[in-house]
């Protein structure tokens, strides 16, 4: 299996060039752009036509990003992305942020879809789960060492989640490559989600959960572009590791990928598949999802307190 993975890595390196990569942790900050010459890469406007008073984060603070500050993002676009993209993204992640102890703007968030329903929170080093009487959303293992949660997420729009991932890729993309992505900048800046605005489909994201301990204050991302002369793989791809979950997607590039996208994109995934299940989710819909159920299995490493 390891030999197969090595061949896969070599194959990816032979097809893609690395455009951006960083392991973010600690207190060191990376600032994108020039603080003294502010030009928004999303709306194309400068000060004083737009303001740059707020500290914009290239990746949402909700996933623990305290490191990448974006001087290329004006306050107007920052407010738009927060409302139209990050809100859906945070609701999609749901209890993952709580269970993984990912610190957002106001610390580790609690999770509760509605008052009176399942509630998940941390009390110091103890995970506290509050559930209504005779509720079947929590199933404890027979040995009492693990448990399974059945969690209903808050309503979110799949296309908004996908756009948020695209916005992260655009934020760290070298300026020379942005000429290929004007359609994406326009798309994520729309004030409503619709298939008419950008009829590219499917909008797929590959996921892989790493079943071992990972620091909750580290984010790793990678942006890659297809090498010259290669035609049978998608033009650009982006991966990001958020705690124990690895996400990968191919940027929607109709011009460069016309006739070149393979039907089964799973074969192009750069995520290792050494016995760990590779998930695939479709985020094409612009309609709000209201009853998305997440099944979460927790092992014996965490001793929860049930009330």
Brief account:
This protein is of the alpha+beta class.
Question: What do you see in this structure?
Answer:
With about 300 residues, the chain is an alpha+beta fold. It has one domain. Helix content is about 20%, strand content about 25%. It is built from six helices and 15 strands. The strands form four sheets. It has a six-stranded antiparallel sheet with strand order 1-10-11-12-9-13. A four-stranded mixed sheet has the order 4-5-6-15. A three-stranded antiparallel sheet has the order 7-8-14, with no helix packed on it. A hairpin with a 6-residue loop joins strand 4 and strand 5. The N terminus is likely disordered.
List keywords for this structure.
307 residues; disordered N terminus; four-stranded mixed beta sheet; alpha+beta
- Number of H- or I-type helical stretches: 6
Distance between the termini: 44 Å
Strand percentage lies at: 25-35%
Tally of domains:
1
The residue-averaged pLDDT reads: 83
Q: Please count the beta strands (DSSP E, at least 2 residues each).
A: 15
Strand order of the largest sheet: 1-10-11-12-9-13
Main beta sheet:
6 strands, antiparallel
N-to-C series of helices and strands: HEEEHHEEEEEHHEEEEHEEE
- List low-confidence stretches: 1-10
Shape: globular
Q: Radius of gyration over alpha carbons?
A: 20 Å
Structural class: alpha+beta
Q: Helical content, roughly?
A: 10-25%
């Amino acid at each position: 299996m390891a030999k197969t993975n090595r061949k896969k890595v070599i194959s990816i390196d032979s097809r893609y060039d690395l455009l951006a990569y960083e392991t973010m942790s600690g207190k060191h900050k990376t600032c994108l752009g020039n603080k003294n010459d502010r030009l928004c890469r999303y709306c194309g406007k400068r000060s004083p036509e737009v303001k740059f008073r707020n500290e914009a984060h290239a990746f949402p603070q909700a996933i623990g990003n305290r490191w990448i500050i974006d001087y290329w993002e004006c306050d107007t676009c920052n407010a738009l992305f927060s409302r139209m993209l990050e809100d859906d993204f945070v609701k999609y992640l749901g209890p993952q942020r709580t269970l993984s102890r990912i610190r957002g703007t106001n610390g580790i968030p609690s999770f509760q879809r509605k008052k009176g329903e399942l509630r998940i929170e941390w009390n110091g080093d103890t995970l506290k789960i509050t559930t209504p009487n005779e509720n079947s959303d929590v199933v404890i293992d027979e040995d009492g060492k693990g448990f399974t949660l059945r969690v209903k997420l808050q309503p979110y729009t799949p296309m908004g989640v996908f756009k948020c991932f695209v916005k992260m890729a655009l934020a760290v993309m070298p300026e020379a490559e942005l000429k290929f992505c004007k359609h994406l900048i326009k798309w994520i800046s729309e004030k409503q989600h619709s298939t008419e605005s950008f009829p590219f489909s499917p909008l797929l994201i590959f996921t892989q959960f790493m079943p071992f301990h990972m620091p909750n204050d580290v984010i790793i991302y990678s942006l890659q572009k297809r090498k010259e002369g290669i035609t049978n793989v998608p033009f650009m791809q982006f991966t990001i590791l958020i705690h124990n979950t690895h996400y990968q997607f191919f940027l929607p590039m109709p011009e460069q990928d016309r006739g070149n996208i393979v039907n089964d994109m799973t074969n192009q995934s750069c995520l290792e598949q050494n016995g760990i299940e590779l998930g695939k989710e479709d985020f094409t819909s612009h309609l709000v999802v209201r009853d998305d159920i997440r099944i979460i299995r927790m092992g014996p490493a965490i001793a929860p307190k049930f009330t």
